[in-house]
Amino acid sequence: MAQDTSKPLVLSNARVIDPARNLDAPGAVIIVDGTILAAGPEAANQGAPEGAEILDCNGAVVAPGLIDMCVSVGEPGAEHRETFASASLAAASGGITTICTMPETDPVIDDPALVDFILRRARDTAIVNVKPMAALTKGLRGEDMTEIGLLQEAGAIAFSNGHKSVRNPQILRRIMTYTRDFDALIVHHTEDADLAGGSMNAGLNASWKGLSGVPREAEIIALERDLRLVGMAKSRYHANLLSTAESAKVLQIGKDRGLDVTAGVSINHLTQNENDIGSYRTFFKMSPPLRDEDDRQAMIQALKDNVIDVIVSNHDPQDVETKRHPWAEAEDGAIGLETLLAAALRLYHNEDLDLLSLLAKMTLNPAKRLGLNTGRLTVGAPADVIVFDPELPWVLEKAAIKSRSKNSPFEDARFSGRVLRTIVAGKTVYTYD
Q1: Can you quote a single GO CC term (predicted)?
Q2: Is 65-370 a domain of CATH 3.30.420.10?
């Protein structure tokens, strides 16, 4: 039965979590005309608006919808891997209400008309908010800077070179200086391609498997270089996907110097390590590569210390043809929209982070970095809201995956915690049956 969005909606008998107010308490959330009217204990006390639909949450968590800052979608150019329709359904089922899309499409999103295409296409076919990132350089070749101002005017939320680092430091410095003048955010992949060269984390595991390794230094050196350039240009910078203990130390030094820098980490690097690769399972091949257990633990500690600010899915759909190859020849990438929250809840169940802090990394923090008024349950904010049971057990079965591509490193994994309802701008777009 379709929801009547003209009626107020009350999510009652809930555990309301709002990182923006450091709130974790029993209460309710009241939604009117697509925005938050009240949330928390005060909402439970003030009663329901006249004619409201009342949903008893039975003690489930009500929180802001997640914001995923690193999502690849196949549209345009590779719709067989993913479309905005399929990606948004996958996102909604995972509690994500806003996806920030990478510019690595065909054609590359390096022209204002293509940003406009993304926004129009998403408006017509997606059930969650879509915020496109535009390319830093034309064709992502790392040579010629794109029209930053025009792309921002067209609606680009940030600027990225995708899963490629801009190799030339002089070009990157020039880009940083230019983006500073537009107060634009650079979201950069920190990997020195000349040094990387391999297909899995460098070390004993790679040697035993006969595979060329990607040294940690490929990431560390790229990050150190980038932060030096940020210091020169005074730009806004976000390291997209960190994976090593030393990178967290480098980032902390940059923050201590007063640089306007933040960083993200993929859920894979928080919950998996290089041992999960097993017998060359290519669904675990990604960029940056899965590191060892010490690095994984260091990433968790960096989250706890607020050195790393954001958790992302790094959703990168690949089809059978790009994954069914020998390990070294298979494409990097794993899907992750549907499992972002469920996998992140492992950190909560393992007592690595409390639920309020964990959710902040996927709601308030990305919203603040991107300048969005979502990611919170404050009065007047858009009603992008999720309801989830943090204890409900389930298994990710391949047949149930909503993404067009099925390359999940969590296939057949057991989770505790499931999204029950996802609401975007006051409208229910997903319910768990």
Answers
A1: cytoplasm
A2: no
